[in-house]
């Protein structure tokens, strides 16, 4: 597997961990790990208590709630019409996950939750090692990146940035945007 693809796979899992975090501690640890990776092993220290509180507050304000959030991390919101959850794009992701032999652990999140989609991308890249699975995995990756993630993540990123996130969340959004741009390069999936 090419070095860029290995790095992107690691980035996808670290981004998954950030967006799947359920507690302040998980969020801060995931953020530190992501920053260490994108900075090529540079500082990945967890934030101090005040920064951690700001990060958690901003993360909840932008992505979780309890109030209406500016950037929900669900594809269906952007692909199936404003405010619509569990639409056609959710079912498409469910079918993709099932084709990988995975089911979503429904802890209240639909199949098109960003962390699940990042994990699906990761799983498909793992299938590129198998000569028999490679053609189908490559086709699924192209669909996932170009027709799915490539359509909704730019809008999601725009909304999140418009909500003026603090620098720590801005770094996460930058990492997601860079990951998306790299994952859209079809040549990555030809080299594996």
Automatic annotation (TrEMBL):
Leader peptide range in chain numbering: none
Pfam families in UniProt: Nitrate_red_del (PF02613)
InterPro entries reported in the protein's UniProt record: DMSO/NO3_reduct_chaperone, TorD-like_sf, TorD/DmsD_chaperones
Highest taxon above the source species: Bacteria
Swiss-Prot/TrEMBL keywords: Chaperone
PANTHER family given in the database record: CHAPERONE PROTEIN YCDY
Name the record gives this protein: Molecular chaperone TorD family protein
């Amino acid at each position: 597997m090419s070095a860029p693809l290995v790095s992107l796979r690691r980035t996808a899992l670290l981004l998954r961990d950030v967006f799947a975090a359920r507690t302040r501690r998980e969020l801060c640890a995931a953020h530190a790990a992501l920053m260490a990776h994108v900075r090529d092993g540079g500082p990945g220290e967890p934030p101090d208590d005040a920064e951690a509180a700001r990060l958690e507050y901003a993360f909840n304000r932008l992505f979780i709630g309890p109030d209406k959030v500016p950037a929900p991390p669900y594809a269906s919101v952007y692909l199936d019409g404003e405010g619509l959850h569990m639409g056609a794009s959710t079912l498409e992701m469910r079918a993709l996950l099932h084709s990988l032999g995975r089911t979503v652990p429904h802890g209240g999140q639909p199949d098109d939750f960003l962390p699940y989609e990042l994990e699906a991308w990761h799983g498909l890249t793992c299938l590129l090692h198998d000569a028999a699975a490679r053609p189908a995995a490559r086709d699924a990756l192209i669909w996932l990146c170009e027709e799915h993630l490539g359509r909704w993540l730019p809008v999601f990123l725009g909304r999140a940035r418009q909500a003026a996130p603090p620098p720590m969340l801005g770094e996460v959004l930058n990492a997601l945007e860079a990951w998306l741009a790299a994952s859209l390069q079809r040549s990555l999936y030809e080299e594996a």
